[in-house]
TrEMBL record:
This is cysteine-S-conjugate beta-lyase. The keyword Glycoprotein does not apply. Its cofactor is pyridoxal 5'-phosphate. The lineage of its organism: Bacteria, Pseudomonadati, Campylobacterota, Epsilonproteobacteria, Campylobacterales. Its EC number is 4.4.1.13. Residues 27-369 form the Aminotransferase class I/classII large domain. One of its GO terms (molecular function) is pyridoxal phosphate binding. Belongs to the class-II pyridoxal-phosphate-dependent aminotransferase family. MalY/PatB cystathionine beta-lyase subfamily. The keyword Lyase applies. PANTHER family: PROTEIN MALY. Keywords: Aminotransferase, Lyase, Pyridoxal phosphate, Transferase.
Length: 375
């Protein structure tokens, strides 16, 4: 199924249009943006084509059937019991994150992120005139862990929110339940709200524990952000959900939500969202197998070449966190090292503290493309 994929190089795909700007050449395989260079599943395309048979594309509400499809999926695959009345449409997880920051903190308040982490977290905090507090992860032989002692020290009366990346981008950790419970206990103790970005949860190779499922008390202090966009390669359709079970938080959020007015999304996104969660199980199983094969291919190549580049197999995501420190290159040299090999990767330094000497590589590509990579 994933032997080849459609050519996007002549489309308006961001990862291709920005090659010259970011890498100084168009002659690179762009492996930086976290979307897949794999065909969107047929069942989603068929659902969209079916909707296109109706000649009117006026305003529509996001149908309850779409929300119910996500509810059933999350219960079956992650044991998470969502309720329709707790769910909001949002065009993207980043929209949801920024809206939540605006709703549940004030200017100059502190918001914690656990670096190295998706760079848009820090940007969202700074763009809203809040203060970024880094609680760097602990790295041990390629494995990453929360630093609870540092977290306790960093929390102050001005700390209002912790943004949890679960599974984690870019290090690929699926957090154990015990780790999450300890994190939750600290946040509950200090009345810190948790915004859980769980967009990669369906791309887990081991059991993912939704943060809000830990306990009713924890759920009352958690906002969960979900989307099928990464899993089924429909990021360009702009659709996700925000989940808030605490009635007080939900009432406060609703006022901001209505003031901003995000609308209900576009009609094609609705059918894609529902189709993904209704028909996606078998396709996702095959996708994960393909991703593991790509990971194994790269690992074998590095081993055969006795490469100084190494990585730990991720617990989740289609992103590899390449440890290039043994190359002893500065950040610009490291960037150029991969460009010279015709690869466009994300620089580790863009993920904050702990990213120096690393590169992030997207391996959600066809087998043909994977075999073309020569490191």
């Amino acid at each position: 199924m994933f032997e080849t994929s459609a050519d996007r190089s002549q489309s308006n795909a961001e990862k291709y249009t920005k090659r010259e700007k970011l890498f100084g050449t168009e002659d690179v395989l762009p492996l930086w943006v976290a979307d897949m260079d794999l065909d969107t599943p047929d069942f989603i395309i068929h659902a969209i084509k079916k909707r296109l048979e109706h000649p009117i594309f006026g305003y529509e509400e996001m149908p309850n059937a779409a929300f119910e499809a996500q509810i059933k999926w999350m219960e079956k695959h992650h044991g998470l019991l969502l309720k329709r009345e707790d769910m909001f449409f949002s065009p993207s997880v980043l929209t949801s994150l920024n809206l939540s920051i605006q709703t549940f903190s004030s200017e100059d308040d502190e918001i914690i992120i656990q670096t190295p982490v998706y760079g848009a977290f820090a940007n969202s905090i700074l763009n809203n005139n809040r203060t970024v507090i880094e609680n760097p992860l602990i790295e041990k032989n390629g494995d990453y862990f929360f630093d609870f002692e540092d977290l306790e020290k960093k929390i102050s009366p001005k700390t209002k929110v912790l943004i949890l990346c679960s599974p984690h981008n870019p290090v690929g950790r699926v957090w154990d339940k015990e780790e999450l419970l300890q994190l939750a206990s600290i946040c509950l103790k200090h009345n810190v709200l948790i915004i859980a970005d769980e967009i990669h949860c369906d791309l887990s190779f081991k059991k993912h524990t939704p943060f809000t499922s830990l306990s009713e008390k924890i759920a009352e202090q958690t906002i969960t952000l979900l989307s099928p966009a990464k899993t089924f390669n429909i990021s360009g359709l702009s659709i996700s959900t925000i989940n808030i079970s605490n009635e007080t938080l939900k009432e406060k959020f609703t006022k901001k939500y209505q003031a901003i007015y995000l609308g209900e999304g576009n009609v094609l996104a609705h059918v894609a969202f529902e189709a993904a969660y209704t028909h996606g199980e078998e396709w996702l199983k095959e996708l994960k197998e393909h991703l593991l094969e790509n990971i194994a291919l790269l690992k074998q190549q590095l081993k055969e070449k006795n490469s100084k580049i190494k990585f730990k197999n991720p617990d989740a995501t289609f992103l590899l966190w390449l440890d290039c420190r043994a190359l002893k290159l500065n950040d610009e040299e490291l960037h150029q090292y991969f460009v010279n090999k015709k690869l466009g990767l994300s620089q580790g330094i863009s993920f904050g503290t702990g990213g120096k000497g690393y590169m992030r590589m997207n391996i959600a590509i066809s087998k043909k493309a994977m075999n073309s990579i020569k490191l």
